[in-house]
Every structure is written in structure tokens, then in C-alpha cells.
Amino acid sequence: MELEDAGGRLLTAAQVADWCGRPDTARITVKPVIDLNQHHAVDQYAVPERIAERVRLRDRTCVHPWCHRPARRADLDHIDPWTDPDEGGPPGQTSTDNLAPLCRLHHRMKTHGGWTYTTVEPGVFLLRSPQGLTWLRDPTGTTDLTPPDVDPPERRTS
């Protein structure tokens, strides 16, 4: 069991039981276990809550490099842009494999600013800036994959 938005602290059933008996406990929501490895998809643009919840729990934050805004306050972005099936779009585009949380700023940068990203595997993303810089974002954080600048070799004069 985990307490969301509290630094990932784990809870025991005894702690929850203790809280439920205390008058200063305002609200506790206990949800069933969700298998985050299950693939879910629908043939619609709007993201149903059962898919949104899995994506938010899997990624926890905006997946843009070094962003830590909570996924619950982020947009759910179609990694591969959604195309209406009546216009040739494939079935199942709104899926746990094709969605990721992006905060509003980073969602706009992706949609209008030339940023792109792909899924390496669920919860692991390869992001590219308009300038060609690249990062890997996974549950452990952000890794800069952009090769360092290399000084050109000195010219020989002989």
C-alpha cells in the first residue's frame, strides 16, 4: 500500500486501521490493486478513467526531462498523435502504451514547439528537442543522451 503525494512512503494495514479510528483523519480512500502491466485500449480520443489511472500511477510525474510535476495535475498526451478512425487512424490509439502525462507547459512544447518522444517500453521514454538533444526518462529520473561536443582534431601543417 502506498500513500500518494507523500514521498512514496509505504503504509501498513495497521497504520490505515489506526488512522480510521482517529477523529482527526479527514478522508482515506482505499482503492483496489491495479495491475500496471496490463494493456488497455479504446477506440476514442477521450481517455477513460480506468486508462488514465493506470498511466498516472505508472509514470507519477510529467515525463518531460527533469520535470517533477505530479501526473495527477498533468494532461494525458497521445504519444503518437490521435487520428480519427474515420480518417484512417488505427484502432486502439487511446491506450496505456500510447499515453503519457505531460504538464501543460511541456504538452504545449510537444504539440506546438517541435519536441518529440517515443516509448522505449511502458514508463520509459526517449525525448528529443527541436535542436536534436536527447534524453531518456524512466522511473529513476532523466539521463542526458546527447553526445558531448568534440573538439576537431588539430590540423597538421607539413
User: What integer value in Å does the Rg equal?
Assistant: 21 Å
What structural class is derived from the secondary structure elements?
A: alpha+beta
Mean pLDDT over the full residue set: 88
Shape: extended
The SSE order reads HEHEEEHEEEE
Number of strands: 8
Low-pLDDT ranges:
none
**How helical, in percent, are the residues?**
10-25%
Strand order of the largest sheet: 5-6-7-8
Largest sheet: 4 strands, antiparallel
Supply the number of helical segments. Answer: 3
User: What percentage of the residues does DSSP assign to strands (E)?
Assistant: 15-25%
Distance between the termini: 72 Å
Q: Which features does this protein show?
A:
158 residues, alpha+beta, four-stranded antiparallel beta sheet, two-stranded antiparallel sheet, 3 helices, 8 strands, 20% strand, extended
3D structure, described in words:
There is one protein chain. The protein is an alpha+beta fold and 158 residues long. The protein contains three helices and eight strands. The strands form three sheets. A four-stranded antiparallel β-sheet has the order 5-6-7-8, with no helix packed on it. A two-stranded antiparallel ribbon has the order 1-3. The longest helix is centred in the middle third of the chain and has 11 residues, at 49-59. It is extended and about 85 Å long.
